[in-house]
Specification:
The chain contains seven helices and eleven strands. It is α+β, with helices and mostly antiparallel strands. The protein folds into four domains: 22-69; 71-80 and 90-120, no CATH class; 127-209, no CATH class; 222-252, no CATH class. Strand 5 (98-103) and strand 6 (106-111) form a beta hairpin. The protein is elongated and about 80 Å long. The structure holds adenosine-5'-triphosphate. Adenosine-5'-triphosphate binds next to helix 4.
Length: 252
């Protein structure tokens, strides 16, 4: 029928399902008001369901935070970095939530929310951090910090990033243009497999924000170093301490 109509230049009424054209981007234009209004109804029903599920998710996350506590402590054991081939027995014994350290005849036990052993990966750590980010997007104040002696793996766990990571490239270029050589080196230590918690968190937040069409998000970033009583803005062009505490006196 369609073919005949074209050949004989006859105007015919096509069945409703034929009143549509496929767009190059895979979309479809429907030629009937009724179908459009049905789709609009479906979209608004889906939006309302999405709002309902989001509310339930926030409630569930709130309950989870109440159960697990709003402060969570993880302990990560850095693999030993040995320059010799002599194998020494690790002074650290770990279980899921306990860690024991033996040194000079003293044994010290600690309990935390989760212990990551020497073999743990950046993925394992981020898996525990991920739900907290969701909570940040829901409007809660969130802080993730690493604490430990020098050389214990704070930078590795938190910052290691890979400049070839597409999502992080733009932001890292801005950051790197401000950083000191030494800090920039730390930032560039990672590969795409071992990205630290910070670049992963940025990727995760951007990805959630891009998917959520019902809200507008604005992001800001700051990087500060607290070292030996000095506070340094790592993104400031001049690498001068903002604050220094000398023998109890505070100078600005
Ligand atoms: N989980 C790990 N797996 C492999 N290597 C690690 C791990 N954690 C740390 N390292 C390595 O150990 C070294 C010291 O780690 P890092 O620089 O992150 O320590 P830090 O706690 O930030 O030290 P500082 O306080 O002096 O800045 C680095 O060479 C890092 O690559």
């Amino acid at each position: 029928m369609e073919k005949e109509a074209m050949e004989g230049h006859v105007n015919v009424m096509l069945p409703q399902e034929n009143l549509r054209s496929d767009l190059p981007n895979g979309g479809i234009v429907l030629g009937h008001d009724k179908e459009i209004s049905t789709l609009q109804e479906e979209i608004s029903a889906l939006r309302s369901r999405q709002r309902h599920l989001n509310r339930r998710r926030r409630e569930a996350l709130g309950k989870l935070i109440d159960l697990k506590g709003s402060i969570r402590v993880f302990c990560r054991v850095r693999p030993s970095i040995s320059t010799s081939n002599i194998k020494i027995k690790s002074p650290v014994t770990v279980e899921q939530e306990n860690i024991a350290v033996r040194a000079v005849g003293i044994k010290k036990d600690s309990s935390v929310d989760r212990v990551f052993d020497q073999e743990s990966t950046q993925d394992d750590v981020f898996h525990e951090v991920k739900p907290i980010l969701r909570s940040a997007l829901d409007g809660h104040n969130v802080c993730i910090l690493a604490f430990g002696q020098t050389g214990t793996g704070k930078t590795y766990t938190m910052v290691s990033c890979c400049l070839s990571s597409i999502e992080f490239k733009a932001i890292s270029e801005i950051i790197l243009s401000h950083l000191s050589f030494e800090t920039a080196n730390c930032l560039q230590e990672g590969t795409s497999d071992n990205l630290g918690a910070v670049p992963r968190a940025i990727q995760e937040l951007f990805s959630h924000a891009a998917q959520d069409t019902s809200s507008t998000y604005s992001f800001s970033i700051s990087m500060l170093e607290v070292y030996m009583g000095s506070l340094r803005d790592l993104l400031a062009p001049r690498q001068q301490p903002l604050f220094r505490s000398i023998e109890g006196n505070t100078t600005w």
